[in-house]
Amino acid sequence: MGPTYQKMDKIKAENIPPALFNVYKKPLVFHQGHMQWLFDHDGRRYLDLVGGVVTVSVGHCHPKVTAALHEQIDTLWHTTNVYRHPKIYDYVEKLVSKFSGDLKVVYLVNSGSEANDLAMILAKAYTGNSDIISLQRSYHGYSSTIMGLNATQSYRMPIPVPSGMHHAMVPDPFRGIWGGCRDSISQVPNSCNCPGDCITSDKYVHQLSELLDNSVPSGRLAAFFAESIQGVNGVVQFPKGYIKKAYELIKKHGGLYVADEVQTGFGRTGDSFWGFQNHGVQPDIVTLAKGIGNGFPLAAVVTTKEIAAAHNKSYFNTFGGNPMAATVGKAVLEVIEEEELQQNCKETGKYFLEQLMELQKIHPVIGDVRGKGLMIGLDLVEPGTKQALNMADSSVIQEMVKDLGVLLAYGGKLYNVVTIKPPMCINKNDVDYAISVLDQVFDFYKKNK
């Protein structure tokens, strides 16, 4: 049902911003989803390894989440968060139970961009400072303020951004100047294999120290923002020990540590519910979005009472924490627990990584396999080099994989990293299917290159 394919093309050309570009030569039109599967307008089924860009956490149209939303829609849609309704209290109580220590105050908002923007306000209000550090090639959202926090050219418009934004060297074990080893069963070929913290972490932290000592006004640091694993940059994991040492350095300089868990949260990395727990640190502020609502508009900022108290002006969010969003959020948390999806991420993710490592042995186009749980990156290269595979060939591979019934996304500075972040309900049979498709496509590429 709906407009014809040809009419959609016309509407796209005339009414949709050109910045929203088509991924495929012939764009897909989806009309239905169920768990890890999507169905196009012709009824063809696709294994979804994109998850709406890490947003569909427990599965498309999960029965329990869908039923909870239907019941709430028939009861109450929206009032305003200046009034009370029970769903927001039920949800916030369950959400904070997932955090330890003093992380007990929750702001409910609508998107990751909104969450990170609010986190910046809180950090500046609490510290009285305005300088903020993020990592090169990071992505934290899209607004006139957040654009300054991003260090990715694809998302930087040639317009002024707020002053006081600084970007530290990204500690990248595959493409970084010192390499390194990471918290993954898959390491960069010929990398170090340190039993504890990686020896390169000190070198990357020294670069952060240089930035603090030379570029940030003394005593004026508000916060350090970091994703637990860089998502848009192609699932870049940091050398072991980097985040913990960076955290200690930031605290020494009086700044807050903001953990961006928009992609890594809710059990996706397998070993822990939150990505920052894998680094052995306790953030001052945590931002959440995407998988928090399984595709429903919902995001959150979690912080301490002390930091929230510094937010001493009136605050109002029209849709944040509305009855429908709170209902969905609570149902998502219940499904993650009841279906043991964090454990599934750990076991199925490990299996996926192992199979991809086997592919890497026979397909030289795979330069690096990395990731943790069901957050995986496949760095495609010009065979025999570390040079990123050209975009034309990357696009051909993506098209062929799609034609065989599997959906993949790309990330990284040069759009050459296959990013695998599916609904957390996928199983080993799905992995075998995906590996079979990738093997066929990479084999074809090798023979026809």
TrEMBL record:
Necessary cofactors: pyridoxal 5'-phosphate
A Pfam family: Aminotran_3
Top EC class for this record: transferase
Family annotation (Gene3D superfamilies): Aspartate Aminotransferase, domain 1 (3.90.1150.10), Type I PLP-dependent aspartate aminotransferase-like (Major domain) (3.40.640.10)
Keywords assigned: Aminotransferase, Mitochondrion, Pyridoxal phosphate, Transferase, Transit peptide
PROSITE patterns: AA_TRANSFER_CLASS_3
Assembly behavior: Homotetramer.
Protein name: Alanine--glyoxylate aminotransferase 2, mitochondrial
Organism: Euphydryas editha
